[in-house]
Write a structure and sequence with these properties.
The protein is mainly alpha-helical. The chain has one domain: AhpD-like, CATH 1.20.1290. The chain contains 13 helices and no strands. Helix 9 packs across helix 10 and helix 10 crosses helix 11.
Length: 227
Amino acid sequence: MQIHLILANLPLFIYLSLFIMQVMKKRFSKRLHTVKDFIYHLDLLISNAAAIKRSKKNSDIQIKFIERIMLAVTQVNGCRLCSYAHTKIALESGLARNEISALLSGDLQTAPEYEHKALLFSQYYAETNGHPEKTEWCELVKSYGKQNAEAILVNIRIIMFGNIYGNTMDAFMHRLKLQGSKESSLFRELGILVGIIPIFLALLTKSIILKKSKNQSLLFDCNPQNV
């Protein structure tokens, strides 16, 4: 009797097995960061708010340059949501589709030669999770000058944080579809997605108390732990 029952339901078992296998194949596999990484990158932005303000007034770093930086960093982190958003902005800014595709595949050759060192540094910054070596940072300053190097770094930090949040959101969306990443967890993802407001307020309070946002030397002393 049990054998007949199993045979009768065999097509259903096979279908469910194939469905589960298909779901497992589509697991989220992009780069993910820890809550500690999230706090580190958010703190970099908050504690250097003055640098962000200065970068917005820098006329040497044009919107096309900024979008190339955004795409270069996004390529390393593999943020699907950020790729979509910045492809749209890049197109509106005048970048050609073939150049956008090249940048999202890691190819920098279509970018202006003047921007190559900045874009390579952008990739390197993302690859090292925001911990560049002193020599690399100083080379950027040497190539572009302090003000432009600061503006480049600020934009790298902005998109780096955006990638972390975007990938976490994407991972959470996949988890709801039973396609969550093996490298993450629901608690980690919620810690970032829900924790952003209390973490932001805590870091902002710390920054105000320490007055770190006014410490311009954080970007200029070529000290790797401050870069």
